[in-house]
Amino acid sequence: MKISKKKSALHLLNLGCGEHFHVDWVNIDISPSHPEVLDYDLRLGIPFADNSFDVIYHSHALEHMEPPWAERLLRECCRTLKPGGLLRVVVPDNEIPFVGLLRKAGFAEITRQSHDASLRHDVLRYRLDTLEDGSPRKPDSLFMEAVKPSPPAAGAQPLRVALFCTYDHGGAGTAALRLHNALRNIAAEGVISQFYCASQKTMMEGVHLAPVFGQNARGRLDGSAVLSGLEQCNRACTAALKAYPNRPVGREYFSLPQLCCDPAKMPLFEDFDLVHLHWTTHMLDPALAQEVLRGRPVVWTLHDMAPFTGGCHYSAGCTRFTKQCGRCPGLGSDDPGDLSFQTWRARMGTYRTLNLHIVCPSDWLAGEAQKSTLLGRFPIRVIPYAQPLDIFRPLNRTAIRSSLGFGPEELVLLFASQSLSNERKGGVYLLETLRRLAALPPAVHTRLILIGNNPPAEFLQTGLRAEAAGHVDAPEHMAALYNAADAVLVPSLEDNSPNVICEALGCGTPVVAFAAGGIPEMVRDGETGRLALVRDAAGLLAGLEWAAGVKNDTKIRLQCRAFALEKWHAPARARDYVNLYRKLDEQPGR
């Protein structure tokens, strides 16, 4: 179903509409009564960009929310209204200290109205609160209106950019979310960023599940939220892969083109000046959304190889993507027409109709994309990640180590990975390196911290003092652990630009890693860490011995910090994107 074209030139939003709605409005309810009503949990916020609406209306919704949620909803109303836009709210009379809440949310010109009067006469024709006979729709109610203040006039209108990423967490999701925050922090430079995802864990300004007609957006008990179509897409991919029983165990993720977030079914999508895709697996594959994306510039930041392969997120040395996929080793397939070829062929036909502008966080990934038959024809540039180096910064190491019970003589090593079952993460070589290290005297002075979900028992039984710290969500907690460590281990066999390296170096902690993928661009051998040949456990061990020798070398830690600031300073990288957005917006035909 495509959304209906609205007859009104105004952008109007009705929250918690129930059965009372008009097709000129964008209507939202948690139990929609009609296909024209978005199924969305308002506790997740209002899923639209800043300055989107002329009028927002909700009747008898606030009193059903806990006070923190009600206050957040009013702030969201202020954020999404245009300057000078009107909020009209109906609540039970005298039940809520409403004027104070509206002022706190940022509103001005707060007035009490009757059911049949409004500061905007053009809205009265919708009879929001008036029955056919002229009586109030809900008697004994308080009718309040408030106006979002208008800032002083200034120059051109800001560019409105929609960022899409399947998750707001995980490696790619975290990197994309950090760029969004960096863009909002420099909003005065003329860009309004709105972040849409299909699975949400954070509650940040301008971050929402994508509002899509025909799908529900629900919060969960653990505070997360998910778009219903994502789970359906994941199940469809799992079912399709069952046709390949010879797929190697431990191989990298393989995905199919899926579309649980169709921009054609998103209200106000056409209002965005630019679309910026990130890791959109099973959320928004541009090959399936070519009709709505065609004719507009699309920025696509790659976080792995999936956009230019037949489904592999890392190719493990396979180069078929440089010609055409098929006989995919990632599927354990000898069939030239397998799923990888079908995906490659579909993308080859549709990508050529789009105006794609590819961004890679590393020269390595840019080089691989350039070799590919799918993306090699498009402009490709490199912009490193925007990292929050105000959080990942040097702290009082002595105090942190003391609070954690780490002795000053201990060599503290840190390894972080969501899962060691993925062969690409190099778990086999990490284990071999740790066992070799345990055989060296004095192993009793080495401590290993494992960050991630349920590391296999053998990693805790190498002979070193090891502890599993579990999953760590809070960036401040991770920053403290990086500061406590003498070195961070990254034995990945193939990788783009791991957040863990950016974060560790930002804290001044050197990195010992394999020289795989984009990692040599991140670690200056002998200055900010040590590099070993890929799969060379003895080389990793030599790197750890180097780390033990420089554990108290202030110069090394200062070099790590200086390099991180040069490479991943968030405001600078955000400005790189702002410059790209402006350049694309000025293209002929825009």
Structure, explained:
- There is one protein chain.
- The chain is of the alpha/beta class and 590 residues long.
- The protein folds into three domains: 12-147, Vaccinia Virus protein VP39 (Rossmann fold), CATH 3.40.50.150; 159-386 and 571-585, Rossmann fold, CATH 3.40.50; 397-568, Rossmann fold (3-Layer(aba) Sandwich).
- The chain contains 14 helices and 23 strands.
- It has helices spanning 67-80, 98-105, 170-185, 228-241, 290-293, 339-351, 363-371, 397-404, 427-438, 475-484, 499-506, 537-549, 554-568, 570-585; strands at 12-15, 26-29, 37-40, 53-59, 81-92, 108-113, 141-147, 159-164, 191-197, 199-200, 207-209, 216-219, 225-227, 274-277, 297-301, 355-360, 380-382, 411-416, 446-451, 465-470, 487-490, 511-514, 529-532.
- The strands form three sheets. A ten-stranded mixed beta sheet has the order 6-7-5-4-1-2-3-12-13-10.
What is the strand and helix layout of this fold?
Layout: E1 12-15, E2 26-29, E3 37-40, E4 53-59, H1 67-80, E5 81-92, H2 98-105, E6 108-113, E7 141-147, E8 159-164, H3 170-185, E9 191-197, E10 199-200, E11 207-209, E12 216-219, E13 225-227, H4 228-241, E14 274-277, H5 290-293, E15 297-301, H6 339-351, E16 355-360, H7 363-371, E17 380-382, H8 397-404, E18 411-416, H9 427-438, E19 446-451, E20 465-470, H10 475-484, E21 487-490, H11 499-506, E22 511-514, E23 529-532, H12 537-549, H13 554-568, H14 570-585
Parallel strand pairs: 1-2, 1-4, 2-3, 3-12, 4-5, 8-9, 8-14, 9-11, 14-15, 15-16, 16-17, 18-19, 18-21, 19-20, 21-22, 22-23
Antiparallel strand pairs: 5-7, 6-7, 10-13, 12-13
Helix pairs in contact: 1-2, 3-14, 8-10, 9-12, 11-13
